[in-house]
Amino acid sequence: MPAMFTVAPVEAFNDNYIWLLQRDGVAVAVDPGEAAPLQRELVARGLRLDAVLITHHHADHCGGVAELGRHWPDLRVHGPAGVAGVTHPAAEGDDIELSFARARVIAVPGHTLDHLAYQMDGMLFCGDTLFAAGCGRVFEGTPAQMLASLKKLARLPPETKIFPAHEYTLSNLRFALAADPANPLLAMRQSRDQSLRERNLPTLPTTLQLELASNPFLRCLTPDILRALTAREGRPMTDETDAFSCLRAWKNDFR
Ligand code: ZN
Ligand code: FE
Known about the structure:
Blueprint: E1 6-12, E2 16-23, E3 26-30, H1 36-45, E4 48-53, H2 59-62, H3 65-71, E5 76-79, E6 88-89, E7 95-97, E8 102-107, E9 116-120, E10 123-127, E11 130-131, E12 134-135, H4 143-154, E13 161-164, H5 169-179, H6 184-198, E14 206-207, H7 208-214, H8 223-233, H9 240-253
Parallel strand pairs: 3-4, 4-5, 5-6, 10-13
Antiparallel strand pairs: 1-2, 2-3, 7-8, 8-9, 9-10, 11-12, 13-14
Helix pairs in contact: 5-6
The structure holds zinc ion and fe (iii) ion (FE).
């Protein structure tokens, strides 16, 4: 079934996307880290902002909420309890009724402990958890927690369209090619996405299917990646959490 609404990226800061969902003049925004660019887009498109979905407490995802609340006094703000400005706290398993869709809440701790993802109509809005060809840094949780969250997302239908909150794809692909150099999909993605970025176009959304086949953080037990990790660490990997944790640490230092 085709989605009952359209989705457009609104650029914020250096590399954030605020995802703007709309139907019939009504809009929902995911992760408005700043209000001004979103507000401009709403005015330009003649949209009324009805609701906001927040994935986690970092300012580049929720910093625009207070100002948006001044423009839109009836605004409903769904997100983790404890995030400033949230009017409707959300948690694992909740179904959020938006005016044109129903969003299922998936708890994905790791990047932060409060991190949520929102699934609706074959789409996933996943903030800083799953990126195109990468994943978020583990700031508050443990690598085991982050891995469990990524595996939860990996079990969604493969055709799911993935909408992360950052345009990190090219740097993620450079790392992915170091960890999994013989994966032909990575070379394909790099040339396609470089040409998109040269034209200032987003590399997103991606699909779960493509990520399952080429995102190293969803594939850390594949033989080529295990070989690269073993060579780098100078010891065999003991299990998936160990491999994921080493891969994430490698990426943190990768330039
Ligand atoms: Zn973040
Ligand atoms: Fe972020």
